[in-house]
Design a protein that fits this description.
With about 400 residues, the protein is α/β, with parallel strands linked by helices. The protein contains eleven helices and eleven strands. It is globular, with a radius of gyration of 20 Å.
Amino acid sequence: MKIRTVTLCADLGDEGNRKLAGDFSRDALDSMPCNVETVRVSTVPLNPFSSTGPEIVEKAVELDGWALDSGIDYVGGFGLGSYPCAGDLGFIDHVPEIIASTERIFSHCQLAWGKKVSVDAVKRTAAAVSELSSIDGGFANLRFAGLYNCASDNPFYPASYCGDERCFTVGISAADLALQAFSGASTLLEARENLIGIIRDRYCELLSACIGLEQVHNVFFKGIDFTLAPSAAVEGSIANALEQLGGFQFGQSATLFFSAMLSDTLKSLGGGVGFNGLMYPVLEDPVIARRASEGALSVESLLMYSAVCGTGLDCIPLPGDVGEQTLGALMLDVAGLSIRLGKPLITRLMPVPGKKAGDMTEFDFPYFVNTRVMEAKKGSVDAIRDSEFTFLV
């Protein structure tokens, strides 16, 4: 197990919080009982009512430089965290320039909250994703996402933003724990009990270190997101763990059942922050990437799995000519799922310029596993004239 992130949530408009962030990040790296991959800081959602386009970009560049100088790996929350108002949406038009001008800034826009979906925000976000695909071979979309019912103080990016209080949360990279728990288990009940026992043991180890950080820096420890984030190694693949348990290939029938079983196990642990379920990011999990290359996995099946466990459509490589209409339609599908089920989801869609469905991606990033570009069925959002839409139940 590794710690994917220790994420401090604080208003970075406050100079005291900026100094705290630097001290906190150094202590977080030194005090945890296992390797910490990144330390991140999420600020309060940006309110563009008081900022012009150049000022927004300038603010992002300034935060990017501050993070580098302070030893902060990434800064999140630079977006629209709560449900957007019409006047806020101009911010989205500046996202491509923000991402192109920085290296450590993550951004997002909340497209659905409660029972409402902002159709205008969906259309603008789809346009931003399309424009971002021309930057760095499509890699720029790693740092921008659409959010759906995502609450504050999530440790994982790009969904993270600061809420009403200064706090910190932890996200774990621990798919290997599932593989350990499932190996040799003769029944699902035994597998579940093994995993609960292993995670609770690790939680006790982490809790002691987190309480220490809380006391030293006077920052509330809000909790751990037990989502078992994958790693680029096969032993760190959540799909590999499920395949070993169920004797099937990820993407085949029964994937939905085993996903629901594992998600239910993780939910039983509590946690109270973030997604607290499963992540199926295609480009970050080697077995999911392999099954996608083999054609065993589709965008539609990933969306179906999100109904019981997943974080939505995350790190999905799409054809470079996918178009804003289809991107927006995919976002509406995720919005509908999130609203009807009342669960947090994201879309992190990554059109790859010059690539068509079936072509291999060529990303050079240690946390990515290259796979074949996935086909996206065409869709359109033009027929929807409402600026926003509210579900009844």
